[in-house]
């Protein structure tokens, strides 16, 4: 049977690849660990191909529900910039990946922590412990380096990288991405989203306004466990925006998340981060002038970007669900894919 595709969300057009890599300069890489009880990995998002410690990008984050163990958010909140690639992984791997990020930055800039300030690694996590044996601490520094080396403009989605062991709406979740084009006068900009989807209960699933979970729940057996998942939502744009405006964009990712049926459950860590590639912030030692000169769009022009963030976030979550295949992992635990359930449902309807 041919693969089922998700519906297009909203009125705005998608970019050529319908992924976060439609934003010029943004690349994504995965390292996937897939053997027996080990179902996990690392995903890396690079805002540009240069040295982020030397050429930082404006960024801001919003925490919708703070049940999470991320590293680096405090400094992003304070300074409004990124100075390493963004890493996604499982909860118990945050420390190893943060060390790997720091080592990579030091390798490029040996003065870090000596003649230069320290670096701020940025690692987000979700708990993949249902499918993955997190106590094995399988993710190591080398896996971050592999994901970084694999970064490209082709964004593989589904049960890959950090998304390998993730669950979404009691089904197989993982990595999803999407993009939307925004026209402001004669200028065209791109908004891209990438999610690590690991949240929700099947009866709550909504697909493009349809409460599909109510229909599909008859094909699953249990929904009595509390939600223990999370979602990380990354938003990129090539529009010239400052950290304050990017925080406003990050807040609209919650609109897309809510549309899919999430209520940000007690045990779910729901975090969004937005960054702009339009301008970079040079490290102080590299600045030609003590004064920084930046342009940014007028706030009155932001509404189309809010639509683009909401639609691309919702689309990315659906893309993760539709792209992910079924996975069996720790102690025989398994997650079926949304596509499998839709095929079963179609067979029942035509019987």
From TrEMBL:
Gene3D superfamilies: L-amino peptidase D-ALA esterase/amidase
InterPro entries given in the database record: ArgJ-like_dom_sf, Peptidase_S58_DmpA
Highest taxon of source: Bacteria
Recorded family membership: Belongs to the peptidase S58 family.
Protein name, per record: D-aminopeptidase
Species of provenance: Herbaspirillum hiltneri N3
């Amino acid at each position: 049977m041919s693969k089922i595709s998700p519906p297009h969300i909203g009125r705005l057009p998608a970019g050529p690849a319908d992924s976060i890599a439609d934003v010029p300069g943004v690349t994504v890489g995965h390292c996937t660990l897939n053997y027996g009880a080990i179902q996990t990995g690392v995903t890396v998002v690079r805002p540009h191909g240069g040295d982020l410690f030397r050429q930082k990008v404006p960024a801001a984050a919003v925490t919708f529900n703070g049940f999470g163990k991320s590293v680096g958010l405090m400094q992003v909140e304070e300074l409004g910039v990124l100075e390493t690639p963004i890493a996604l992984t499982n909860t118990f791997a945050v420390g190893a990946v943060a060390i790997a990020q720091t080592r990579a930055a030091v390798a490029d800039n040996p003065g870090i922590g000596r003649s230069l300030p320290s670096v701020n690694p940025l690692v987000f996590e979700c708990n993949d412990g249902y499918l993955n044996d997190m106590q094995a601490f399988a993710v190591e520094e080398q896996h971050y380096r592999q994901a970084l080396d694999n970064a490209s403009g082709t964004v593989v989605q589904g049960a890959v990288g950090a998304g390998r062991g993730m669950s979404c709406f009691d089904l197989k979740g993982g990595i999803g991405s999407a993009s939307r084009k925004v026209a402001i006068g004669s200028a065209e900009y791109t908004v891209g989203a990438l999610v690590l989807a690991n949240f929700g209960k099947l009866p709550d699933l909504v697909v493009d306004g349809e409460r599909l979970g109510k229909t599909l729940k008859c094909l699953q057996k249990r929904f009595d466990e509390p939600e223990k998942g999370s979602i990380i939502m990354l938003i990129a744009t090539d529009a010239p925006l400052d950290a304050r405006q990017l925080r406003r964009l990050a807040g609209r990712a919650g609109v897309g998340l809510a549309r899919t049926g999430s209520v940000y459950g007690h045990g779910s860590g729901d975090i969004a981060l937005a960054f702009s590639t339009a301008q970079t912030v040079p490290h102080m030692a590299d600045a030609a002038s003590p004064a920084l000169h930046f342009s940014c769009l007028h706030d009155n022009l932001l509404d189309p970007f809010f639509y683009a963030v909401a639609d691309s976030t919702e689309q990315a979550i659906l893309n993760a669900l539709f792209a992910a295949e079924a996975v069996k992992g720790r102690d025989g635990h398994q997650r079926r894919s949304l596509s499998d359930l839709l095929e079963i449902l179609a067979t029942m309807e035509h019987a």
